[in-house]
Amino acid sequence: MVAIPILGAPYVRIQNSSVYQDQGPHQSATTTALLVLATFFVCLRFWARYLKSFGYALDDLMLIAALFMTFVTGGLNYAMIANGLGKHMQLVPQDTLTEFFKLLLGFECVYVTAVMLVKLSVLQMYLRIFPSRNFKYSSWAIGAVVVAWWIAIVLVCIFQCTPIPKAWNPSLPGHCIDLKASFVGNAIPNIVTDVAILALPVGQVWHLQVNLTQKLSLLFMFLLGSFVLFASIYRFTTIMHWQVEDTTWTLAEACTWCVVESACGVISACLPTLRPVMTKISSQWGSLNSSRKNGGTRTTGMGKSGLRSGLGFGTESRAAGGGDGSATHKTGSSAKNGGSAIRSGPRSHGFSKMDSEDGHSLDELPLQKNARPPAGIQVQSDFSVQNEPAYSGERRYR
């Protein structure tokens, strides 16, 4: 054990073997991985909107701003690592420590801004999906709490010391607030609002006029973002390890988990919108497997015959009630060439409005409680149409 003075503190005893440890490379790698993942999922979100030819909404713009602020947060984390974050404080020169504390002040403000934008983006997406008046009031109330939390934290970060420069120059006369208490005060409202946002759509989905399986699938989709809550909770636990006498070492994991939390928030906001992408990938994978099984003689999905699949829509056979009894058949694809087989699965006709007749997906449609099925007889069918040339000039249907 050696006794090492730190910034005028009495003495801090640290094991000789641990003095020269550096968490920097590990923190940099984690930051890079999460920034790449967040960018990847945002690209998937906009690909999904391109597939359905949807325009961009306010929640998309908010998410782009959140991703930008997440990158700024990551950039500041890289800069802090270059200025001593992840090393024991007694190994960092005084001039470098001054730069580190300046970066830390900006890091706190940028991090809470990124988290605030993610939360508002999710709330805005909810407002597009659920048109209920009470739901809108609840969303607006949570959004107001989030904005108030953001303003309070930014003000606390800026004015944590009097005078303000004492935050990065401890030798100046003056005083600072209890930073550990301020970090705890930051984390608790953050976690509470995460829980409120995750729970917000549960009641709306549970009262939809759909079967239990559809309810559970919708709830699962909305609750996919719950892992950002676990990131927030874990970041809170890392803050409790912080010691002011060795800030650069004990705060390293917490700073990196700030980047992890904001990046996970961006990813969570994208997950409910990715159904068109997943449907396209699964349909193409199924088409590939089908082509292999049939030796390439029959084409399904998107193939050389110009077949084009939609958002996983199957074939619908509907007879309009009260009309002349004529039947209308719709398929999710059309064939241009003879000799090709069209296969389409059953479509769950949109009682929950997961799909609409014009091809919109869940994230683009309002979901209302007590939704009623459309008028008329709804017939779900699963059949294939095989068009083969015949000597008699007739078409055979199976």
Molecular structure report:
- The protein has 398 residues and is mainly alpha-helical.
- It has a domain at 19-276: Rhopdopsin 7-helix transmembrane proteins (Up-down Bundle), CATH 1.20.1070.
- It is built from eleven helices and nine strands.
- It has helices at 24-51, 58-82, 94-129, 133-158, 179-199, 202-206, 212-222, 227-239, 247-250, 252-270, 275-293; strands spanning 2-6, 9-14, 161-162, 175-176, 316-319, 327-330, 341-343, 377-380, 384-386.
- The strands form four sheets. Strands 6-5-8 form a three-stranded antiparallel β-sheet, with no helix packed on it.
- Strand 1 and strand 2 (9-14) form a beta hairpin.
- The longest helix has 36 residues, at 94-129.
- It is globular and about 75 Å long.
- It starts with a strand and ends in a 12-residue tail after the last strand.
Briefly summarize what is shown:
Residues 352-363 have a biased composition (Basic and acidic residues). Residues 44-279 form the Rhodopsin domain. By secondary structure, this protein is mainly alpha-helical.
Draw up the topology in text:
Layout: E1 2-6, E2 9-14, H1 24-51, H2 58-82, H3 94-129, H4 133-158, E3 161-162, E4 175-176, H5 179-199, H6 202-206, H7 212-222, H8 227-239, H9 247-250, H10 252-270, H11 275-293, E5 316-319, E6 327-330, E7 341-343, E8 377-380, E9 384-386
Antiparallel strand pairs: 1-2, 3-4, 5-6, 5-8, 7-9
Helix pairs in contact: 1-2, 1-10, 2-3, 2-10, 3-4, 3-10, 4-5, 5-8, 8-10
Describe this protein with a few key phrases.
8% strand; mainly alpha; 398 residues; 9 strands; 52% helix; 3-stranded antiparallel sheet
